[in-house]
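Per-record layout

source: Flexivirga aerilata
name: Nuclease SbcCD subunit C
length: 1067
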Amino acid sequence: MKLHHLRVQAFGPFGGVEEIDFDDLGAAGLHLIHGPTGSGKTSLLDAICFALFAGVPGARQRHRGSLRSDHAAPETRPEVELEFSVGTRRLRVRRSPDHEVPKKRGTGTRMQRASVVLEERHDGGWTTSATRADEAAQVIDDLLGMALEQFAQVVLLPQGDFAAFLRAKPDERGKLLERLFDITDFRDIEDWLVEHRKQLETAVRAADSRRMTLLARAQEHLVPVGFTGADDVPEDPSDAGTVDPDAGALDLDAVTAELAARSTTSLAAADAARGAADAAREVLDERRALAALQRQASQAAATLARLDAQSEATAAAATRVALAERASRAAPVVAAATRRAKAAASAAADLAAARRSLAAVTAWPVPALDTDQLPDRLDAEQTLAAIRERRAAGDVALGGYAELNRQLARHRRDVERARSDAAGAEDRAAERQRAVNAATERVEQQRAQRAEHAEIAATVGDLQVRHRALERFGTMLAGARRAIADVRAHDQELQAARETWVHAEGHAIRLRARRLSGIAAELAGGLRDGRPCPVCGSQEHPEPAAADDDAVSADEVDTAEQECAHARALVDDRTAIASAAQGAARAAVDEVLAGCGDAVEFGVPNHLRDTLATHDLSGDALPTVLAALDELERLRAPAADQAAAGLAAAQAAQRTVTRLDQVIEAARQHLEIDGLELAEAREASAAARARVAELRAAVDAAEARLREMRADHENACGCLPFEPSTHDLPDVIGGHDRCADLLDALLAAAGQHELARGEAATAHADLTAALGELGFDSADDVAASQLPTTELRALADQVEAAQLERAKATGVLEQADVAAAAAADPADVAGAEHVARTAEHTAKAARDEAAAIERAHTAVQRIAAEYAEAERESAPLRARLAVATNVAAAVTGGGDNVLRMRLTSYVLAARLETVTALANEKLAVMTDGRYSLEHTDALAARGGKSGLGLRVRDAWTGQTRDTATLSGGESFMASLALALGLGEAVIEAAGGRHLETLLVDEGFGSLDDETLELVMTVLDQLRAGGRSVGVVSHVPELRTRIPAQVRVRKTATGSTVEVSRADAEVA
């Protein structure tokens, strides 16, 4: 690869157009690129990388957005053009980064997307090869065989990086080598072997776990039957890991045979024990039956003996029962006679009490009515008749007395109520007067308040206009921010669609290229003997091309091209959507600009207006516009809040005025009502006073009539033993009614006394007849012979039960089997029960033991079969695991790998060994044979990566030492040698492409004159074969040694480039 010509425009520090003809410089073989710090020497190297790879090396890649020169005019397009050749092919690439350009209409800028044009020279002219970034990248990658990072290390030779590489630890050195040499296949091998070992470990662990589980299950069945062994079986099979479970485990086959023998023996013992238990049960049943008959005979004999001893008591009880039954028949007659006699005595007492009560309260002459003499009884009846007549006259005299007395009480209550009503009416009139005065005062206060609030409410209209304008402006700002957010979102979608399209297009291009590379095999697939070849026409096909395993078919290419077309269509759709979003955002921002005139409350700064008017709504300008909108919102919000607060206060005052109008009107209406109520209260007071006088007259009339009725009663009745005129009017009627009630009670008691006396005589006659019939002398004899019902019933039941027991006991003793049992010896039931219980327990234990042994035998026999199957399945896995473990350990630096060197480290070590050999060719010249680099694969300390060590051998001392002991100049030479050696190694690994251009960046200032001369010798050697070598340095000594120079100057208007050779100078 060789550089021919470089042209930069508005790129980096270069504001104008600068050109370098590397062919002119290459004529001298060695050229110098120099200039003051910050002038742009490294920017020329960045321009070469940008032209080839659309990026710049290292940390500068993060600042790709600043590639456009700040010194260039706004309309100048940033661009890099590089002409280079690879082998026999000569190409020219022209690339421009993303940059801002002035809008064609209006003010502000818009984003111009990156572009690239790749051309190839054919027959003296240039032919376009690619205009899309992905196509150009694919062609350049195929030609160079390396990426940006490799190119920056191999062609540009940054000495600072290789000085660090020289002194780096093996791990850090390995990271750089991994970036330059592709070891993906070897890393994949490492990963696959480790993963394969893990899979086999998991499978073996699962197989071992299964076997341990089977042993544990067998142990569970053996322990209950008394089998002990295999104590090493873990309780948790998951703890077995990959340990061989055969160690110390059960011999399941031997255990199965032993269980079979024990099962046969236990079954025979169980049958024998069962027969003995059945025989013992039969003996027990016979003895229990004999014991039951003997108990019946004994119990019957005891019953008869007890009944004979109780015979006299039983006969006495029967006699007492008969006497009590006759007394129970006479008892109701005795009770009736006694009850009637008591009723007659009670009636006589009531009659005497009624007479005493009446005589105690009346002036009437009350006769005695309990005499048995006829003349006395007739006189008493005549006297009672006269009393009844006087009572009737008294009733007539007092007719209407009670009603008139009730009317008098009502009149008196009415008088009191009327007086209370009059007082209440006067109070209400006074209260109404006070209410009218207070209401009048409140109306005056409310009218004053209304006047104050009406003045504030008059400003509502102006405040509403102000508030609506600010809210409308806020809505515009929110709409503009949403529109800008939509632009961002659609730009991201467009970018994603473009990336998808680029990926799909690259995939399609690679598939087409692979298909073309294998087209010979595809054509060979259609060849037939005797038919002409479509390419050469021959009918013989001695060596047809063979298809690769990864050959691409036409269908795969078509599918990839369809996906590419779909992706391109999606890009077009997203572009249209993004453009529409930008238009909508521009309209929203323009609306905000138009609305700025309404935002007079806070004033819009001119710089915010300019920002909104001049900036394009795309790319990097969006944050600026969005910040301006946010600033406007920050200015608007306080003004809007203030306007809203003022409007709310005015509207509140307006509502207060309306409310006060309603309150004043309601107060006026209430004032009118209070006036009417005052007049009504005064009228009611006058009416109440007139009512009091009227009711007082009615009370006086009623009292006079009552006095007249009392005098009439005294003359007609004379029931009261005192002078009525000395008592209150209610006492007259109360006394008369009391005498009348007591007279009625006396007459009723006399009638009841006569009736009770007759019934008592009849009951006494019935009693006399009943005592004679039942054989009793008196009522006391009947009472003495009676028994309580429960006692009588119990005594009768006792007699009946004794008779029944005697009959049953006699029947039992007359039975033949009972008589035979009574004559036999006593049955030994307890002994038979003990024998039967012992035999049954023995039989059950034998049966359970036989069943348990049989179950254990069946289960262990099944487990033994499963265990044997598991052993057969796990044996191959275990063997494969041993191999996989050793191989994985070896390739990952473990196991028998004494150097702890991974496979990838081994490959990188081989690469480093090659780099070291190539570097020593250059270092031997630069150090006059003193120093050489040695690659060491010694074991690294503290677990570090082995195989990537570097040492330096000093031929003068014969010692090997660490590279960190080299001086600054020595380190530079060693770093330069490493850079050259690594470059050649990378080229060789990438396909052996020859580099005809090398650029060495900095580091020469640390060399003395003699050493510098040796280094220059090496650089001269690099010129062999027409190679062009450029040295980037600001060391003055090199300007006298290297005539061909590129001088970079920095000025206030941007950097410039001057190219000079030994015989001429080109600006």
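summary: The first helix runs from residue 22 to 26. The mean pLDDT is 78.
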